[in-house]
Amino acid sequence: MSLTRHFSRGRDLARTAGDHAGDMFAPVTLIGRGLRSHADWAKGRWAATPKERRGPTVFLTAAALLGIALLPHGPLFALIALMASAAWVGREPKAAPAPAPDVADLKLTALYAALTPYLGGFDDAAPLYSLDGAYKTAFDSWQFDEEGRLTALELRYPPYFTDTEPGARARIEQVVQGKAGRAREYLFDWDEESNRLKIGALAPLATDIVAQPFVTAPGEIVLGFTDGLGSRRTIPVSQGGTTAQQPPVVWRTGARAAEPHLLALGAAGYGTSSLLRSIALQALPHGDLVVIDGAGTGEHACLVNRPGVHTVETSLHGALAALEWAAKETERRLTALNAARHHGVPAPADVTRPLWLLLDHPTELSELAHAEGRQDPQDLLEVPLRHGRAARVTVVIADDLEARDRISPSVRATTRARVLLGPAGPEVAQEALGVPLDIAPAAQTPAGRGYARLGAATPVRLQVPVTVDPLDDEAQAGHRDAVIALLPHRDTRTEAPVHPVRLSKEPSAGRPGPVW
Ligand SMILES: Nc1ncnc2c1ncn2[C@@H]1O[C@H](COP(=O)(O)OP(=O)(O)OP(=O)(O)O)[C@@H](O)[C@H]1O
């Protein structure tokens, strides 16, 4: 017999002996494990027993043991019971529970399945998205936060997906937001050349920036604040008791402005009037205002009688008079500017001082005018809108989203700065901003929250500074005081009732001062 065979036989014998020994000692192992578990249990109970109850516990246990010892065959029965219970407890432990499925895996699988009907090519021989496919074939990278929420995802889509159609994009964006959670906003970055889509969850914007003097150049209006993607600069703002650097959305007005007029549309109660108030407060130090409050709710009464505020009109009659004056004033300024240019002299100050026409809910007045058979106030905006840039006249129109169809075509065509506030579907957002919005809004939107688009630029997120009506008793005192501090003279908040305002028929030769 060779040496190798001896070795292998020896190994087999040793293994068999080991197996037999294992079988023989199995009950002992079982009882030992059970006794260990009993000891652990007893230690645990002892540790959990309050100190004052330990003495009585020891006494009762000793009495029970003594009782058992005195019983005929008591110790034998007790020993058998202890061994039996140890053998029961020491059985093989149950199989460990299956590890919890990975949340990321579950969510991405669900998202992949939800996208398949839209991105799957059922005639495609090797589809990226298919009913029995796996998300890893189409998703390149992803990120989740500590709470297990999707924060970033990059996916590929087939070349035949119609990524140039806003409707097709909107469907994908809705599916992604539905699966990733509607509590947050998502930015969709479509790379049409390489058929890739990058999705990023956006952090909420600060909602505690209150009206204050902003560090800007004359003619620059801070519409609100955005995120790092929406603005290349930051300005210092006082926020929550400290000074913070925040990226502003700045609208440049004036003779060289690319977007000389602004149209802000918003869902009811989402802050278009507050935006108008914020613009008025920033415009007042350098210009004059004509304010038309078409809703007639008196939300701009705090501007009445302020230096630089030409008039605040709430009636159709007053609005028509003010806008007729504004149209003539625009023409007067143009004539004066042309004459100055013709003679090679600087233009007089009264034609270069900015004039602002701020119209809140003008469509309400348009309706009234149609009913009464009078001229539509929006028609009177034609001249300021067409020639406002040269004549330093800026028009700002704020209205309800529901009234967007009643905004006149010339207002739409000439207001190249756009703001949309409050919740709006993809089609409505496109109508308001002029381009599809590649951001899916969150389900809950705070007041003053929306998007701004200046000229041909991509829309950016916007949070308008808190600019409450200082005469609104329900607004926070601190917010009201912030607005009062910006009004041209100290407000007592118990001012005399609004005086009826009457405009002069002829445009003023000099600076258009108050005419009441
Ligand atoms: N930027 C903001 N931050 C915080 N609260 C705001 C903001 N803008 C508006 N609000 C609050 O929302 C409420 C409605 O504001 P506002 O009157 O400006 O909205 P609106 O869209 O003009 O409403 P309506 O369509 O009814 O005229 C007010 O209580 C106001 O204080």
From TrEMBL:
Entry-linked SUPFAM superfamilies: P-loop containing nucleoside triphosphate hydrolases
Parts of the chain that traverse the membrane: 58-89
InterPro entries reported in the protein's UniProt record: FtsK_dom, P-loop_NTPase
Protein name (record): Membrane protein
Domain FtsK: 246-430
Highest rank taxon of the organism: Bacteria
Location of region: Disordered: 489-516
Keyword annotations of the record: ATP-binding, Membrane, Nucleotide-binding, Transmembrane, Transmembrane helix
Binding site for ATP: 266-273
